[in-house]
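Quick sanity check, GTPase Der:
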Amino acid sequence: SEFAALDARIEADEAAAEADLAQPVLAVVGRPNVGKSTLVNRILGRREAVVQDVPGVTRDRVAYDAYWSGRRFTLVDTGGWEPDATGLQAAVATQAELAMQTADAVLLVVDATIGATATDEAVARVLRRSKKPVLLAANKVDDDRLLADTAALWTLGLGEPRPVSALHGRSSGDLLDAIIAALPSAPREAGEATAGPRRVALVGKPNVGKSSLLNRLAGEPRSVVDAVAGTTVDPVDSLVELDGQTWRFVDTAGLRKRVNSANGAEYYASLRTKTAIDSAEVAIVLLDAAEPLSEQDLRVLTMVVEAGRACVLAFNKWDLVDEDRRHAMVRELDRGLVRVPWAEKVNISALTGRSVRKLAPSLRTALKSWDQRVPTGQLNGWLSELIAATPPPVRGGKQPKVLFATQAGIRPPTLVLFTTGFLEAGYRRFIERKFRERFGFEGSPVRVNVRVRE
Ligand code: GDP
Ligand code: GDP
């Protein structure tokens, strides 16, 4: 039954992660000068300024966060995609093709004062094959006299042409209502603030000093008195005050009631660790500074990273560390902690109390990173520069293209790259490393997912 509860929790987490990735994407396509950028600006309410096109300079932002009627979606301006096709018609058709594959819905913008051109018709032909919703915006309808021009656009075969004036904002609300209606239902807001104290798991191999640290942090009597959320017989969590903030140390019951059965003790210890990590937001991984990093330590760390929790590394028993040990550690940790170069390290002694007050600031940093979201516009501005400088490696004779990215989720921060080809793990790690160099995220794992549309 403990296993069943654990499985249910993992499933719930995975479902939540899936939902985060489902933030709907709307791609805006159309010929140059029909007013796509103006319309994108209008939809964004100018919260994220669109960089104006300068001839010969690549538009460096392609995707943005948009909100309407309490719904969030990603707005993609395909003008920044630079298709390889030569000729305007082929270029716009290629854009439409990519938009169709990448987005959940496509908005074709046409200049109603000009009417449907051959290029508009070519694009419409591409879009009519789409199984996804396509909306037709008849732009530059600045006043009622132009409504007749709008009706003429029915000939494109994309359903009702929706009159709008991107410049003056006329009917843009109606267009947005239609967009929201066409998009797949928006996911819940990912990981919004949870009520109450932040949840901390104190984990590490047996005898590393977990009980000692908990008692040191909480004070012996308090850790019992403040036990919460369980029955009076078997309290589960402890409330601990650190650095002026109350924290909930989860699943601490097992720390006080030591499981001493020789049989299966390790199994229960590992199960307890998993349960604690899953119920927490951030983990303090205790390591024994006086001993070499062990297999067991790495197993615990892996659990934390795979669960996507923020993390602080606490090297306990620092009072036993001498000069020689310190030198040995440097090399050892470089090798042992390659998976978590982003985790903050604190050297403590639960026995003497040395530096234990440094834990709270590190916990706060880690949680701040875990909660952090980079706006889509800013993310793509950075990403397009990075990719221009270091494109993904060619694979099977094909150059995969990264079209745009969003940070689809927080807790943990999760990037989704929308691409036209597979991105190797090495390149995804490169992106993660550069992302951290640019935006921080100390103390939190960062996930880089790829949505391939071919
Ligand atoms: P894009 O190349 O499709 O992104 O087009 P832009 O957004 O750069 O717009 C091209 C030109 O059309 C600009 O001079 C805009 O000011 C103008 N424009 C855009 N929307 C409207 C509109 O609703 N009415 C009028 N009259 N002009 C517009
Ligand atoms: P747990 O199994 O992880 O809960 O570990 P305990 O808290 O029971 O500690 C295991 C042993 O390590 C005990 O004998 C502690 O007194 C000792 N210990 C814990 N922290 C320290 C420390 O910072 N320095 C030293 N020298 N010993 C420690």
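Posting the structure with no commentary besides this: DSSP finds 15 helices and 16 strands in the chain.
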